[in-house]
């Protein structure tokens, strides 16, 4: 495909991309780092770029659970975990980051309770560029205590102090303090936000009263916007 690009064989490029996406998804998932790096090196590989972007945001499990997950580059890992649309809980992201970091240092003991100070320093040096993209404040108090606190030595000191202060102040172990971290956007929420971004035409008085009535009856917000869209288009049709 790279050769086809160099020879400007556009039809062949389109065919090869389509073939890979339709028939070689397992191979691409297992070699995602290579596919990702290759696709974004060339502006002609738009279908592959879309495939990579969709896989990162919509099906990250296929990347994280790949047998070759530990082989992906730090740069790609950062690209994945900094996404607002990553369809994965924050605790899962943290645990996969730990898994990746440990895989880069196979000489470390399998039981972190046996880690020496040097062992923690070794682990700390591996994912340190990724840690700023973990939204720790989206964790529950219990998640922090169970999964982050044991690895406190790999966190920046000031971050750890603030996290400890924040989560110790929460009375409910399942509660979260998400005001300091931007939340991930689920696919449903993303669709809802897109719906809210519609540019509606001005409504006539009678149409406004219908929407006001909809609000008063406390119909769910998505229904309100859906009805607003229908009424607006009905108004356009009526006036044409």
UniProtKB/TrEMBL annotation:
InterPro entries: BACK
Residue ranges of every copy of the BACK domain listed in the record: 47-104
Top-level lineage group: Eukaryota
Protein name: BACK domain-containing protein
Natural source organism: Rhizophagus irregularis (strain DAOM 181602 / DAOM 197198 / MUCL 43194)
Lineage of source species: Eukaryota, Fungi, Fungi incertae sedis, Mucoromycota, Glomeromycotina
């Amino acid at each position: 495909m790279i050769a086809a690009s160099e020879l400007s064989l556009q039809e062949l490029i389109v065919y090869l991309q389509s073939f890979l996406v339709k028939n070689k998804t397992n191979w691409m998932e297992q070699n995602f780092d290579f596919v990702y790096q290759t696709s974004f090196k060339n502006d002609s590989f738009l279908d592959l770029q879309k495939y990579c972007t969709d896989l990162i945001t919509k099906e990250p499990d296929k990347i994280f659970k790949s047998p070759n997950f530990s082989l992906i580059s730090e740069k790609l890992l950062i690209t994945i975990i900094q996404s607002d649309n990553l369809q994965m809980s924050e605790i899962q992201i943290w645990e996969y980051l730990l898994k990746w970091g440990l895989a880069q240092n196979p000489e470390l003991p399998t039981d972190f309770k046996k880690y020496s100070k040097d062992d923690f320093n070794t682990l700390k040096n591996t994912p340190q560029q990724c840690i700023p993209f973990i939204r720790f404040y989206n964790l529950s108090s219990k998640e922090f205590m169970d999964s982050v606190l044991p690895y406190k030595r790999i966190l920046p000191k000031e971050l750890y102090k603030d996290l400890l202060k924040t989560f110790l102040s929460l009375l409910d172990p399942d509660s979260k303090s998400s005001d300091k971290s931007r939340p991930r956007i689920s696919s449903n929420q993303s669709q809802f936000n897109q719906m809210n971004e519609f540019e509606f035409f001005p409504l006539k008085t009678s149409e406004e009263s219908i929407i006001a009535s909809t609000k008063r009856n406390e119909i769910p917000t998505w229904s309100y916007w859906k009805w607003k869209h229908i009424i607006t288009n009905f108004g356009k049709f009526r006036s044409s």
